[in-house]
Amino acid sequence: MNLSRAALLVLLQPLAVQAAEYRVGPDQQYTRLGDVPWESLEPGDTVFVHARPTPYAEKWVLGRRGTAAAPITVRGVKNAQGNLPVIVGENATTRSQLNYWGEERGILKIGGSNQPADTLPAHLVVENLHLRRARGAFTGRNGASTYLDNAAAIFIEKGEHITIRGCVLEDSGNGLFIANQASNITVEHSHLLGNGNSGSILEHNAYTEALGITYQFNRFGPLCAGCLGNNLKDRSAGSVIRYNWIEGGNRQLDLVDSSSGTLRAAPSYARTFVYGNVLLEPEGAGNRQVVHFGGDSDTTANYRGTLYFFHNTVVSSRTDRTTLLRLSHQDQTAHVTNNVVLVAAANGNTLSLTDAAGTLRHGGNWYKPGYVSTFGTLTGAVVDAGGNLTGAAPGFIDLAGQDFRLATGSSLRSQAVALPAEASSEPVTRQYVKHTASEPRAQVSPAHIGAYGDVSAPGTETPDAGTPADAGTGTPADAGTPADAGTGTPADAGTTPQQPDDEGSRSSGGCAASGASLAGPLAFALLGVLGRKRGARRTLPLRRGARMLGA
């Protein structure tokens, strides 16, 4: 019995098959990043970039949609010595088939292109790449060009469900830049260091504005010499900053207001969670404030609402003054709970909890004796919620060696107080491991103060925390970039592209698909006859319509 072509297409639609693999590097399928068909990647495709002795001097755009079950992945492959593949932006070239605006804004750009056709990229994973030097000259669609001062190693103009994992982002204006048409972003196990511009306060190791963003298990190193930006500057809704090592910067954390009405309207904009981090304030490192929270636009109605700052370890090496937290306005509140705050090289009276405005509620923290509420005039309120401790030393295993785990006799053990009810959604189940790793934290009651507890016994581990639940609905409608980061899409992008069909909404197939019990066996029997050959080392994912069966 002959099956009609239409019937066969229907049968093949729900079939799940292996996606494509593209391998770049020495003795691989491709020698250059520009050989990869970035403009036609499909759900489940993976690009493997193998380390080689010389860096790849290439840049590109990711503008395609994966699915939750079949993300599009760009994965670095280490060499025998454990080195990541290095991709350098200086003097880089771009595949001629790619055409995208904002080339001067980054080495790897996500979203915003003419070819591939403009869409909202989704379900992308970028991991194990060392991207550096988005500086100087490059060759793009208009020939010889120059990066802007705020160019980033990775620039996300727009996209949803994007993971940056295990990357090194170095020596660029911004290490990571995310504009406010991005949502549900995870940045984990990565090292951001040496970014910024000498003498400038406008560029940072990370500068982000998204609807739902989680930073976890990352190492933020000092910015470049003479660079005056912050280590992590964020304008997001639904920010979760947990289990990171953040060292240096004008401030370690600058958590300020969004320029996007959509982000500000999200319920998650009202609450920001910072926990389980190690925050290091070196001697002479710019602003004496470790954390700034609220806003910097002077439109105080747009400022963020409440900060939950708990189970962090803060160590200042300053010999002058250190301020833990500045709130921008009287409308901001910070719940500061179960943190250890040590001014290691000075007396306790060199520490102030806040600067002037807002309400700071603190309980269950450890300080040196003599700390003060503020060094200036307190226009807000500092409320002692109880359980705060003082002492000469917190009892770290090795302060000089930056081993901030707790010695057996530490006064921080079992001294934590109950967290605010709103923090119950963010349990402290892990702790940072030097460097860019984590381990399970034993759950004891009362808990230990600070970022470190005891390690869970074998068999009780909690899996590494992954991407959190979506922090809001939809995608921000009003695109743009943080106020001090320059312009967004340039004029030469042309008229607003029409968004194509949302491929991410299609079924990815599999056993749950309607009719799979019939289509699967029959289709596999027919593939050997009707399938067509494609590029080397590729097993085709089945496509719809005219792209199937040689049509």
Structural summary, described in words:
The chain is mostly beta strands. 5% of the residues lie in helices and 32% in strands. The strands form 6 sheets. The protein has a 20-stranded parallel beta sheet that branches. Strand 34 and strand 35 (403-406) form a beta hairpin. It is globular, with a radius of gyration of 25 Å.
How is this structure best summarized?
By secondary structure, the chain is mainly β. It has helices at residues 5-12, 261-265, 516-530; strands at residues 21-24, 46-50, 60-62, 72-77, 86-88, 106-110, 122-127, 130-132, 137-140, 143-146, 152-165, 168-170, 174-188, 191-193, 206-216, 219-220, 232-234, 237-242, 245-247, 253-255, 271-275, 278-281, 289-293, 306-310, 313-316, 322-327, 333-337, 340-343, 351-354, 359-363, 366-367, 381-386, 389-390, 396-398, 403-406, 430-433, 437-440. The strands form six sheets. It has a 20-stranded parallel sheet that branches. It has a nine-stranded parallel sheet with strand order 5-8-12-14-16-19-22-25-28, with no helix packed on it. A two-stranded antiparallel sheet has the order 9-10.
